[in-house]
Write a structure and sequence with these properties.
Layout: E1 2-4, H1 11-18, E2 21-25, E3 30-34, H2 37-44, E4 49-50, H3 57-61, H4 65-76
Antiparallel strand pairs: 1-3, 1-4, 2-3
Length: 101
Amino acid sequence: MLVLDHDRMDEDGRALLHGLRVTQEMSGRVLIVEADSAMVERIRATAGVATPDRLDAAAYAGLTQAERIAVDAWRRRAEFGSKTRPGEGRSWGDKDFDEPR
């Protein structure tokens, strides 16, 4: 998850983000992207970009309520552990899979 401060980002930061695959967009400034660990470190070093674990209190306070909820949920996701669901990872179209009802 990234929290963007568009006013602080430079052209290099924008170019870096442009190449990422966005998987979810909570708002124009809070989004989830796919990136390997090396890219995450490059992104973290970019002005105007923060991850939830490195978001300072002033930036957090400037988020909307919906953005704060998303950041809080992201921060807490490790508390929930892994879920065990019947048929996890299988297509509902698999012949041996009974979809939930």
